[in-house]
C-alpha cells in the first residue's frame, strides 16, 4: 500500500544519505591538511600526557518529583531484563517514542560538546547537562544506573567509556567523549560524541570537525600541532567507522558485519578496537539486545541477523 511504499522510499533515501556522508568523510580525509590521511600516515613522536587520576566528586544531583523515572532511579538496582534472550521489534507507536527520546539525547549531546573548553571541569558540564535534560522534562539515564553517580559519562584520553565527571579541569588537546542519555515517554535515548578540547577557531582555514567547527590552524609549539593532528585523525577514523557500520544495518543483515565494518576501518588506519565492550540495543531498558561485538573475528564469523 501507499504507507509501505512511503516507508520503503524513506529507508532508501536515508541509506543514500548515509552513503553520501561516508564518501564525504573519505574525500575530506584524502584532501585534508588538518591531519595525515590513512595512506600516508607516519606515526608521530609520542606526546606524553599526564595519566588521568580521580579528582573530587560533587554530590549526586537530584531530579524533581514530577519527572518520570526509570525503575532503577531511586535504588540504583537495575531489574532483570524482561526480554534477556530476544531482540525487541518496535511497532509504529514505539518507534515514535524512541525517535523523540533519541532526538532529545542528540540535542543535549550537541550542547554538551559546546561546553568542552580548556579550564572547564567535567563536573560543570555534568551539571549543565543534568539541568538541561530536566528542563526538557526527561530523566538523565546514567544517574544511579547501577549506582553511577552522575548524569553524563565523560571519558578523557585513555578512558575507554563511562568516565565519571569530576573536578578535573579539561586541558588543551584532551580527547573527550560524552555519553548523553535520557529517559522520556517510557524509553531511553542514548548517544555519544567525541571532541578535542581547544581545537577550534573562528575562521575555516584548513577544514572543520564533524560539528562544522573550524580546526585550529596556528600553534605556539610544534608538539601541540602534532598532538592535535594525531587526535583529529583518531576522531575522524572513529566517525568513518560509524558510517561504515550504519551502512551495514538493514533487514536480513548479519550483526557481525556491523562489527566487521568497524574493524575494517580501524585496521585500515592502523588502530586497534575495544573488544571488552559491545554496542547494544535500547528501548524501555537502558541496555538490551541486540549486542554488537567488534574485533577481528567479526570478519570471519556469522551469527545473529538483523
Detail the poorly predicted runs.
none
Amount of helix: 25-40%
Secondary-structure element string: HHHEEEEHHEE
Largest sheet: 4 strands, antiparallel
Brief summary of the model shown:
By secondary structure, this protein is α+β, with helices and mostly antiparallel strands. It has five helices and six strands, in the order H-H-H-E-E-E-E-H-H-E-E. Strands 1, 2, 3 and 4 form a four-stranded antiparallel β-sheet that branches.
Model description:
The protein has 306 residues and is of the alpha+beta class. Helices cover 35% and strands 11% of the residues. It is built from five helices and six strands, in the order αααββββααββ. The strands form two sheets. Strands 1, 2, 3 and 4 form a four-stranded antiparallel β-sheet that branches. Strands 5-6 form a two-stranded antiparallel sheet. Strand 3 (175-184) and strand 4 (187-196) form a beta hairpin. Helix 1 (2-31) runs antiparallel to helix 4, helix 2 runs antiparallel to helix 3 (122-135) and helix 4 runs antiparallel to helix 5. The longest helix has 30 residues, at 2-31. It is globular, with a radius of gyration of 20 Å. The relative contact order is 0.14.
Amino acid at each position: 500500500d501507499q504507507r509501505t511504499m512511503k516507508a520503503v522510499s524513506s529507508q532508501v533515501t536515508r541509506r543514500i544519505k548515509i552513503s553520501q556522508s561516508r564518501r564525504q568523510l573519505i574525500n575530506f580525509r584524502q584532501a585534508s591538511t588538518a591531519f595525515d590521511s590513512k595512506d600516508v600516515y607516519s606515526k608521530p613522536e609520542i606526546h606524553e600526557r599526564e595519566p588521568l587520576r580521580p579528582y573530587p566528586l560533587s554530590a549526586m544531583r537530584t531530579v524533581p518529583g514530577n519527572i518520570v523515572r526509570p525503575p532503577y532511579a531511586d535504588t540504583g538496582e537495575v531489574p532483570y531484563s524482561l526480554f534477556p534472550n530476544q531482540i525487541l521489534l518496535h511497532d509504529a507507536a514505539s518507534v515514535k517514542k524512541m525517535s523523540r527520546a533519541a532526538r532529545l539525547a542528540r540535542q543535549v549531546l550537541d550542547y554538551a560538546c559546546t561546553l568542552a573548553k580548556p579550564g572547564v571541569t567535567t563536573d560543570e558540564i555534568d551539571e549543565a547537562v543534568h539541568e538541561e535534560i530536566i528542563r526538557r522534562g526527561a530523566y538523565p539515564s546514567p544517574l544511579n544506573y547501577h549506582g553511577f553517580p552522575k548524569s553524563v559519562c565523560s571519558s578523557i584520553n585513555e578512558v575507554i567509556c563511562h568516565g565519571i565527571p569530576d573536578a578535573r579541569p579539561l586541558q588543551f588537546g584532551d580527547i573527550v567523549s560524552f555519553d548523553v542519555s535520557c529517559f522520556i515517554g517510557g524509553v531511553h535515548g542514548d548517544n555519544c560524541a567525541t571532541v578535542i578540547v581547544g581545537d577550534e577557531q573562528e575562521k575555516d582555514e584548513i577544514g572543520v570537525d564533524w560539528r562544522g567547527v573550524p580546526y585550529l590552524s596556528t600553534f605556539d609549539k610544534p608538539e601541540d600541532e602534532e598532538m592535535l593532528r594525531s587526535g583529529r585523525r583518531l576522531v575522524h577514523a572513529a566517525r568513518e567507522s560509524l558510517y561504515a557500520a550504519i551502512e551495514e544495518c538493514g533487514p536480513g543483515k548479519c550483526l557481525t558485519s556491523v562489527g566487521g565494518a568497524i574493524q575494517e576501518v580501524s585496521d585500515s588506519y592502523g588502530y586497534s578496537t575495544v573488544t571488552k565492550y559491545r554496542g547494544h540495543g535500547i528501548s524501555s531498558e537502558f541496555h538490551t539486545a541486540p549486542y554488537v561485538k567488534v574485533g577481528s573475528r567479526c570478519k570471519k564469523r556469522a551469527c545473529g541477523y538483523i
